[in-house]
What we know:
alpha+beta
Amino acid sequence: MGGRIEARFELLRCEHCGDVIGVYEPLVVRAGDEVRETSCAAEPALPLAHAEHYHRECYAALKRRSVEV
Ligand SMILES: [Zn+2]
């Protein structure tokens, strides 16, 4: 039961396409009703627990699709 070492550079994966999101790539974080754009470089705390992470392009595509309902 030693202290678990946190993976500080855990790879972020896009919820939409499953691809890795690069450290310097813009990404969208969705946590409940809150959606914001950031990047791993700007926010070392990412990935956030209980949040979804998307490539900016993937999130834009999702939004476009949901508008077409
Ligand atoms: Zn993606």
